[in-house]
Request: fold
Amino acid sequence: MQASKTVLVIGANGGIGRESCLALLRHGWQVRALVRALPPENQQQGITWIKGDAMSAADVLSAAQGVAAIVHAVNPPGYRDWDKLVLPMMDNTIEAARANHARVVLPGTIYNYGPDAFPLLREDSPQHPQTRKGEIRVEMERHLADAATSGVRSLILRCGDFIGPHAGNTWFSQGLVKAGSEVKTMQYPGDYALGHAWAYLPDVAETIALLLEREQELANFERFHFGGFWLDGHAMLEAVRRSAGKPQIAAGYFPWWMTAALAPFMVTLRELRKMRYLWKSPAQLDDRKLVAFLGGRPYTPLDEALRTTLTAIGCMPSQRTAAHVA
Reply:
């Protein structure tokens, strides 16, 4: 890793971007954050905030001057215009990394896999996605692989669905429970008997920091799978009950029928329905490579992770009002 130990995080106002900034700060990095909207001064947390647009090659290149790594954590809001925005932003990051001999870090997903790769997803499993968003994810990774042949190093950490205090609109906070409301029923999107992969955002960010500490040991095009929590619906329900301190929380089901009725009018719901296949089959991330490299599993205990998440999103009785207002 370069002696400067300076990192640029693109998309630092998002969940993975914010947690990455905090984890890298803890590990002694000088952190720059490229965002379209600067936070208030009392929330800048020792980070150098730079106002700019990931769609502007000049903005990204300017913000990246002298950095050793670029965390590409930016995503267009919702699902709108993904096909027009995502790949140009990726290419801007790649060119900025090339100019500074920096490594690109991409927090990945399992959307780029189809059922032919289930049930155990390895780093080299075939990628035949079922959705346009998944196809774009495959293309993002292909751009990184192509750039590696000309010397641009990259690191992809693929994860399951996010939970965490700053995770934003996720399956957990908008599906299983409702942010800002005390949990009375957990609405599970699939068969309770099927397992599902969950990733706690602070753990993902900490893993990124740990991997960058050993950058010289990584391949030019490196991929790891973040196993996180592998839970079926029954295990998740019991964990939510324990974490919320409410054993009476009922087992329910996500109202897919409602999304079908509203999907013609809402692009987000149309895209959400296309992801339903991930709730019909088990798709577990094989993390043996990551665990062997780090020498252990970098995962927070499940109940602690869920308690922190439920408190932050306003689902605990004593915290609900304040968190919902915030």
The first helix runs from residue 15 to 26.
